[in-house]
Amino acid sequence: MVNSIVLTADGAVKASPGKVYAIMACGDGVTSGDSAKLVDSLTSTGTSYATIVFDSTDEVVTFTPCKGINFYTGIYLDVTKTSGTMTVTVVYE
After folding, report:
1. What domains can be seen in the chain, in order of their start residue?
2. pTM, whole model, 2 decimals?
């Protein structure tokens, strides 16, 4: 079953193995270089499998891998931002 979650800060997407099909990150007033990273872990430490880095202060970035990305431990969102608001939607199973 495919699910989606919307996060505005660091947090667990899924606390068990899964697959990510799409990521959409919206930055409103963020700083160039701020990022949203999906980590194969239950915390922010672990292997990063997908990272979105913002180039401008108001930007929407969508990443849709053709087969999905397998996460073997869990799926965790690690947000790094200096200012503004970041909203990240993850489509996963």
Report:
1. 3-92 (2.60.120)
2. 0.93
